[in-house]
Amino acid sequence: MKRTRRFALIMAIFWTIVAVAAIVLVTRMSLSTPETIVMAFLAFVAVAGNWLRYYKTK
Questions:
Q1: In the list 25, 30, 35, 43, which could disulfide-bond 19, CB 3.0-4.6 Å?
Q2: Predicted confidence (pLDDT) per residue in 1-55, tens digit
Q3: Which of 54, 46, 38 has the alpha carbon at shortest distance from 20?
Q4: 12-19 long-range contacts, Cβ below 8 Å, gap at least 24?
Q5: CA dihedral 30, 38, 50, 17 (to 10 degrees)
Q6: What's the number of CA atoms in the CB half-sphere (13 Å) around residue 35?
Q7: How many helices (H) and strands (E) does the chain have?
Q8: Over 23-35, what HEC string results?
């Protein structure tokens, strides 16, 4: 399956929404500070990677 620019945009938006929801859930849980930072970092990496893939596709 060829991944088009539209597909990359949809996936970037989807993972942005998932990451925001994950960060909201993590902040509501009673986790320690390092665990919260790790979860936020993983969410940021997922979002950044998908947006970079969108900008890279032409």
A1: 43
A2: 677 899 999 999 999 999 999 999 998 988 888 988 999 999 999 999 999 999 9
A3: 46
A4: 12/47, 12/50, 12/51, 12/53, 12/54, 15/46, 15/47, 15/50, 16/47, 16/50, 16/51, 18/46, 19/43, 19/44, 19/46, 19/47
A5: 10
A6: 9
A7: 2, 0
A8: HHHHHHCCCCHHH
Q: Which tokens is 38 given?
A: 């790790």
How is residue 46 written in tokens? 């997922």
Question: pTM of the full predicted structure?
Answer: 0.82
User: How far is it, in rounded angstroms, from Cα 39 to Cα 34?
Assistant: 9
